């Protein structure tokens, strides 16, 4: 049975606090051994029925990357148009992706046709498959941070066209598109808070008793 002391718990707390959504990357390559260790951490994540439905796809082909960038730019322009005046201008000032700079792109899919787990836990909540993938993404993210890497989750994309351009099975659903690399700068506070988009709720954890 492992034993975790107070010093470890404090360090773990620092890891959680310094896990940021990174959009500004240095061009330095990510060591393959480090990337593999982070992926191994992701594979330790819990999953409904022990189904492990996550599928990580490294996007290295320049043409496919360019397609993803174009998808982001279309979606970003459409999103900006939904805001009025000052909020729209503030939105356009935000840097919401590091797609051009990040040395590593990972598309993370949920295999919704997987037979692993024999359907356990999914009859009443089939979305638990995708929740399992989110858990794997978080594990990867924390491991990457422990190695000094930054991760940015890009959700401003067209999921189905991205799935098609990456030539993966039809039953796979895009859950996350991750940019991975060394951050240009380090900040403990979220970028959206720092740039005046949305403050954090300072109440902390709200536990409701019933």
UniProtKB/TrEMBL annotation:
Residues 17-181 form the Nitroreductase domain. Signal peptide: none annotated. InterPro entries: BluB, Nitroreductase, Nitroreductase-like, Nitroreductase/BluB. PANTHER family: NAD(P)H NITROREDUCTASE RV3131-RELATED (PTHR23026:SF123), NADPH NITROREDUCTASE (PTHR23026). This is 5,6-dimethylbenzimidazole synthase.
């Amino acid at each position: 049975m492992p034993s975790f002391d107070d010093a470890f718990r404090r360090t773990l707390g620092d890891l959680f606090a310094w896990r940021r959504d990174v959009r500004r990357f240095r061009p330095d390559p990510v060591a393959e051994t480090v990337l593999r260790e982070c992926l191994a951490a992701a594979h330790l994540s819990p999953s409904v029925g022990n189904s492990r439905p996550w599928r990580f796809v490294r996007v290295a082909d320049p043409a496919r990357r360019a397609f993803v960038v174009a998808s982001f730019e279309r979606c970003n322009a459409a999103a900006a148009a939904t805001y009025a005046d000052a909020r729209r201008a503030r939105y356009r000032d935000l840097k919401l992706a590091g797609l051009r700079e990040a040395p590593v792109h990972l598309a993370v899919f949920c295999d919704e046709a997987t037979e692993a787990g024999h359907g356990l836990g999914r009859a009443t909540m089939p979305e638990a498959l995708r929740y399992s993938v989110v858990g794997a993404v978080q594990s990867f993210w924390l491991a990457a941070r422990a190695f000094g890497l930054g991760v940015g989750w890009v959700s401003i994309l067209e999921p189905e066209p991205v799935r098609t351009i990456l030539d993966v099975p039809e039953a796979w659903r895009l859950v996350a598109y991750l940019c991975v690399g060394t951050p240009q700068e380090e900040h403990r506070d979220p970028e959206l808070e720092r740039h005046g988009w949305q403050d954090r709720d300072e109440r902390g954890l709200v536990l409701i008793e019933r």
